[in-house]
Design brief:
With 514 residues, the chain is mainly alpha-helical. It is built from 21 helices and six strands. The protein starts with 6 loop residues before the first helix and ends in a 21-residue tail after the last helix.
Length: 514
């Protein structure tokens, strides 16, 4: 399988990317030896591979899947619950990270080792979340002649991920700041926080396996909260920051294609309007049809949400009539848009709140929950020009935020399931145009919020009333590693590689008695 081998090709590709793939990379190279690959260069490529966002309509595919938006141009499969195949991505990057460690100066070995362990765990965790079982322990043995790696079970994958993250954190604890990181500045203190938040995210994704004695989910979670360095503000976010420079502008800026096609869903707009959440004025823009009818731009009634369960012909009619609310101008008419967060302070607080409700840790769930909401609101304000154009005069001042946090309808009540629903719902709201795919995976894990589904328009052939819970393995796997992928599909899904099959992580742990 060529994705696991040919290291030289991978390194040439990385070197090419640094000269042609955009301006986010700040590479420390020897001007006298411009073609030499260095540890710092490979580090930059590895970090960028985690933060990079696709362009054009691919940028918002996750928002379509989780019903944040509809689309006015043409029918989009994700909106109508059509999931296809997904490849085993990220392995070439992991090979480059191994080479990075080999090339690292002795004094930087710990830092680059920590980065390599983190990138490996991060990449393969998400591949497994898409598909289920994947190659992990054999995945990088191509140079040893193993061209057809076996598939680890998803449980084995998660154990590897957790162990690699433990190693990553330990390496960063003994490291000093390093070169080749234009995103976090090579700060090992910040990297420790990033690793910790990702550890918490991985463990919360295993909530259905909390009683599995091998995983030790609760024990691991408690240890991280009590002894690891966690994020303390939005300044710690692991995020991609756009700018007004060519090659670095926000993907939906109006000079690019597709900027006007997103139609904010009625599901999200109604959710925000019902609780008088000022983020509505920052997420969406007033519908032109309402403004022409004389509705004030700062009215809660100026927004028109699009029912995502309608067929595309209905969406097209609404789009042509301008009877919808598109994305706020700050996404489409400011070149820098807003940063896209992958791991962040808001997310961390929602995870901690849920952990308290589940009884994994002690603490005040309500405090964590409200810190998560406040962090989301503060982030939005910080990255929005303070002009009426971008919030219609409904500015989220500290007083407005405090009033929202005191609102009775959003309070946790001590009812476990009800509180989890409120936490995940607020996490869903906070993930609008942020935390790509986070809302989908949280819905898949918890069932919250209860996303709208219309069997009449759903393209999920085998389960019209459900959103798919996975992607199918790519055709490349069946071509190059047929025996092992078929064995994995038989083991997990009874031989049926289909989008509604439950992977191991989604099944409740059942204790086996002798």
């Amino acid at each position: 399988m060529n994705k696991y081998i040919k290291l030289a090709v991978c390194l040439i590709t990385v070197a090419f990317c640094f000269t042609s793939c955009g301006n986010f990379d700040e590479i420390n190279t020897d001007p006298d030896v411009p073609t030499r690959v260095t540890a710092a260069m490979l580090a930059s490529g590895g970090i960028k591979s985690m933060l990079g966002s696709p362009g054009a309509k691919d940028f918002v595919q996750n928002n379509l899947a989780c019903k944040h938006i509809a689309w006015g141009e043409n029918s989009q499969g994700y909106l109508y619950n059509s999931f296809g195949r997904s490849g085993l991505s990220g392995y070439s990057t992991i090979i480059n990270m191994e080479k990075m460690v080999e090339l690292a100066p002795e004094q930087d070995q710990s830092a680059y080792s920590g980065l390599a362990q983190f990138i490996k765990a991060y990449k393969l965790f998400w591949v497994s979340m898409d598909l289920g079982d994947i190659p992990y322990s054999d995945a990088l043995k191509g140079e040893e002649g193993n061209m057809k790696p076996k598939y680890d079970t998803q449980k084995e994958v998660m154990l590897h991920v957790l162990d690699d993250l433990d190693k990553s954190y330990a390496f960063f604890c003994e490291a000093k700041d390093f070169d080749g990181d234009p995103f976090v500045g090579g700060s090992v203190e910040r990297w420790k926080k990033i690793v910790s938040v990702f550890q918490l995210q991985v463990l919360m994704s295993l909530s259905k396996k909390v009683d599995d004695p091998d995983l030790r989910v609760k024990e691991r979670f408690e240890k991280i909260v009590s002894s690891s360095t966690l994020m303390t503000s939005n300044a710690d976010n692991f995020q991609l920051v756009y700018s007004d420079k060519d090659g670095q502008i926000y993907p939906l800026y109006y000079t690019t294609m597709y900027w006007d096609y997103p139609m904010v869903s009625s599901f999200l707009i109604d959710m925000l309007r019902d609780t008088k959440d000022y983020r509505l004025f920052y997420y969406a823009r007033p519908a032109e049809s309402k403004l022409k009818a004389g509705v004030a731009a700062d009215s809660w009634d100026v927004f028109v949400g699009t029912d995502v369960t309608l067929d595309f012909a209905s969406h097209k009619d609404l789009y042509v009539a301008k009877n919808f609310s598109g994305l706020n101008w700050r996404y489409t008419h400011t070149r820098e848009g807003e940063p896209v967060v992958r791991l962040g302070y808001s997310q961390q607080n929602f995870i901690l709140a849920e952990a308290v409700v589940r009884g994994w840790i002690t603490g005040d769930a309500s405090t964590y929950y409200k810190q998560g909401i406040k962090a989301s609101m503060d982030f939005t304000v910080a990255h929005t020009p303070d002009e009426d154009t971008y919030h219609q005069g409904r500015k989220m001042t500290p007083e407005v935020i405090n009033d929202f946090l005191a609102q009775s309808s959003i309070q946790l009540t001590g009812d476990k399931e009800g509180d989890i629903e409120k936490i995940i719902t607020q996490r869903y709201i906070s993930s609008f145009m942020q935390y790509p795919w986070d809302a989908y995976f949280e819905y898949r894990r918890t069932g919250y919020p209860k996303l709208p589904i219309n069997p009449a328009t759903s393209l999920n052939t085998n389960a019209k009333d459900k959103i798919p819970v996975r992607w199918m393995y790519s055709t490349d796997e069946y071509s190059y590693n047929k025996e092992n992928v078929e064995e994995a599909v038989a083991r997990q899904y009874g031989g049926n590689d289909e989008v509604n099959q439950l992977m191991w992580i989604l099944k409740l742990y059942i204790m086996k008695h002798p």
